[in-house]
Amino acid sequence: MLTKISESGSFTQPNDAATIKSDASASQVAEGDPYLVVLEPEDNPQNISLFRRWLAVLIISSASLCVTCNSSIAAFTEQGAAQTFHVSKEVTILGISLYVTGLGIGPLLVGPLSEVYGRNIVYQTSYAFFFILTFPVVFAPNIAVFLVFRFITGFCGAAFLSVAGGSVSDMFPNSSIASPMAVYTISPFIGPVAGPLIAGYINTHLYWEWTYRVQLCWIFVELLMLATLVPETYVPVILKMKAKRLRESTEDSKFYAPLDRREGTLASAILVSCCTPFQLLLFDRMALLLDTWTALLLGILYLAFQAFPIIFGDIHGFNMQTTGLTFIGIGLGMILAISIQPLWNRLYARETAKYNGDPPPEMRLIMGQVGAILVPVGLFWLAFTTYPQVHWIAPIIASVPFGSGIYFVFTSTFTYLVTAYRPIAASAMASNSALRSAFAAAFPLFAGAMYDKLGTVGATALLAGLATIMTPLPFVFYRIGARLRNNSRFAAH
């Protein structure tokens, strides 16, 4: 007996017509009746061995880290690129902004596509193009080619900012999703922090183009792992593949999966799916405000790639390599934050018991409450330790709580989005990615002018003030989130 599974992935008991006899070479159904294909429990992605699920999470996360690391390495190639292409430094800053713009636009297409074709084909195709189209960046003959392909490669790598969250939610139930989501969440933010460390070292000892050559080798390794070690996890596509196998093995065309009966053309289905992220931002206030919050924080993080060279290079006289090392504080804060994930898991376990194993998604916002406090504390601390007479270690230490707060906020928000909006998890992550990438693309462009006008103290304190304004969000939504979800046409009820 096989078990029927709905398109959303929930199990129901089969009826009599959904029974396949033990003779697997053929299936007896009523003459002329269509046969809705069914999925055995062991085929469910949540029943894959724990080792394989965690291996998939680690590979997807490392691929995401590689994509986002590629965004920030451009900050330390700006001087070399400006000299090679005979342009101003302001033009080369577009190498970051255009790449991040691609990261923001890409999920609006690839996120919904993963809900039509599946996660794996999107991963493999996008990463293959990411690898191939990085070559024109490495060997660009002029600044136009360099900038155009920076945008295109950002677009190609964008799948890992939306689809990956959907993969994690496919493989883990709500009760155990916190740890894998934490590992995935930290990867896109360790990536931008790791970029200056890597690029600072390479650009100190080698020509600036070697930064992208090293990145190219890393992309190739990630592509091989994605192609060989990551299974398909999207249930409707698993059903569709199973139906195709049954049609071929039994030569019976009556087998079908829900995706086979999708109404309308494929183009119209993709168009409708691509509209979902925009609809979520326009009509769901909770998603809009949470996405705006994370967008502001990511914008501040990317602004740091222009601000830290001013703080440590201009004020303290650091060279390129040592300036790259100053980002260790943010990275250390993130690592310290993820190291206490077991404590959060125990807290969630206690709360889960109170709700008979089904806690509301708002429980995930408790971590965000801590992060909402740490981020402005770290920024204010950083602001008032940027005076020349203050030792350089002080602002680096100040960036530790900022890094921890970033991790707590994004882990909380990402986990909340994929649980509260589980039926459209990839689209929910796509809307978040689009908005936060828009902020991340814009902030570096005005960083230099803002720091010149306001000074390091005033400019950083202004950012801290903006973060403070957003601090109440996780506290408010923790209290009223359930009511807002009940009135939402997108959230799971």
Structure description:
The protein has 493 residues and is mainly alpha-helical. The protein has 20 helices and 4 strands. The chain has helices spanning 50-72, 78-85, 89-92, 94-117, 119-132, 135-138, 143-156, 163-171, 178-205, 209-229, 235-250, 266-283, 285-315, 320-325, 328-339, 341-354, 365-383, 393-420, 425-469, 473-486, and strands spanning 4-5, 11-12, 35-36, 255-256. The model is unreliable at 1-32 (pLDDT under 50).
Q: Beta fraction of the residues?
A: under 5%
Number of helical segments with 4 or more residues: 20
Structural class: mainly alpha
The SSE string, one letter per element, is EEEHHHHHHHHHHHEHHHHHHHHH
Shape call = globular
- Biggest sheet: strands, sense, closure? 2 strands, antiparallel
Radius of gyration, in angstroms, nearest whole number:
24 Å
How much helical structure, as a percent, in the residues? over 70%
How many strands appear in the DSSP assignment?
Answer: 4
Terminal CA distance: 31 Å
Strand order of the largest sheet: 1-2
